[in-house]
Write a structure and sequence with these properties.
This protein is an alpha+beta fold and about 325 residues long. The protein is built from twelve helices and twelve strands. The strands form two sheets. It has a six-stranded mixed beta sheet with strand order 3-4-2-1-12-11. It has a six-stranded mixed beta sheet with strand order 5-6-7-8-10-9. The chain is elongated and about 75 Å long. The termini are far apart.
Length: about 325
């Protein structure tokens, strides 16, 4: 039977055939779009429960780029349904990620507390460079992760304890050790129960302002074959903001980005992330080189009237992380 011209124009099969690439291209683009939708949904449905979804969640900011590429491909190939789904998911991701590069309009007031956090990479970081940064930046409190006994010796030899004489150190082999070193007197606390890696805490006796509780943070690396549940427990062990409004700072290698469920929950209970508040929330801190896609897993969180004034990441030779420096203001 001969078809009319109108029937030929309206035939969906003919429409598909006329699209660039044909049915195979449609199927491939649809599979890529479905994969992208699953990736984009991870931070929303909070499925970072095993190491592969933890890794994909850490790369959420890169999903925005993947979504934009899929939207462009869909437009070029005229796959309108693919364009629609990819565009909606990309817009949702932008809505989540974009605030991290927009500074909050809050003005920090009060006494300055300068905080530096350094992951020493199994004690292999350049001790002299750490001390130089402490001295040049007038650091008041230093959080050290992966602090080995040998690293303590190197730091002492480089003059750290002449600059910051007060310390609560829980040094250990490999990545086990963590420490707090301060210009001001410290009184050791027990704000964090025993975790896989040391996470010491102390009360910083700030002479011209309110005393500040300080936690040096380092939950275990979540990408091992069986470490993800332990990483989750280590993060859950971190204290919520004080109900009494006691000033508190938590600084270190959280091994988590702002998209990971446990860190989002912690911040949602009343902490301020210094980088996110100052529009630096996408500034990467790991790795220091290009061995993996750069992500932001080192943080300074504060609560109880403590707000960030400035923020910077610092290269430390010998470390696989970039150090984090921020000036906090402790309200009176």
């Amino acid at each position: 039977m001969t078809r009319t011209a109108h029937e030929v124009l309206d035939d969906p099969a003919d429409d598909v055939a006329r699209k660039p690439g044909g049915g195979c291209t449609t199927a491939l683009l649809s599979l890529l779009t479905l994969g992208f939708l699953a990736w984009a949904a991870l931070p929303i449905v909070e499925l970072d429960v095993e190491r592969y979804t933890v890794a994909l969640t850490a790369l959420t900011q890169y999903a925005v780029i993947a979504g934009a590429v899929l939207v462009l491909l869909g437009l070029l190939l005229r796959r309108w349904l693919n364009v629609l789904f990819a565009l909606l998911a990309t817009v949702a991701l932008v809505y989540t990620v974009a605030p991290r590069v927009i500074p909050d309009p809050v003005v920090a007031e009060g006494e300055a507390l300068r905080v530096l956090s350094v992951n020493t990479y199994f004690g292999g970081a350049d001790a002299a460079k750490i001390v130089e940064e402490v001295r040049n930046r007038g650091v008041d409190v230093l959080s050290l992760q992966e602090l080995t006994p040998e690293m303590v010796t190197e730091l002492e030899r480089a003059g750290l304890f002449a600059e910051l004489p007060n310390r609560v150190l829980q040094a250990g082999p490999k990545a086990d050790g963590t420490g707090i070193v301060s210009r001001y007197p410290l009184r050791e606390l027990s704000l964090v129960p025993t975790t896989t890696l040391a996470q010491p805490s102390a009360l910083v006796d700030v002479p011209t302002g309110r005393d500040v509780e300080f936690v040096a943070v380092h939950p275990i690396y979540p990408m091992g074959a069986d470490t993800t549940p332990v990483w989750q427990r280590d993060l859950v062990a971190l204290p919520e903001p004080s109900l009494t409004g006691q000033p508190r700072v938590m600084a270190g290698d959280f091994n988590a980005t702002l998209d990971h469920t446990r860190l989002k929950d912690l911040i949602g209970r009343g902490y301020v992330d210094a980088a996110g508040a100052l529009g630096e929330g996408l500034t990467p801190t790991w790795p220091s080189g290009w061995t993996a896609p750069p992500v932001t897993i080192d943080h300074v969180l504060s609560s109880g009237g403590v707000l960030p004034e400035d923020y910077e990441v610092v290269d430390i030779p010998g470390s696989d992380h970039r150090a984090v420096f921020t000036t906090l203001r402790v309200a009176g």
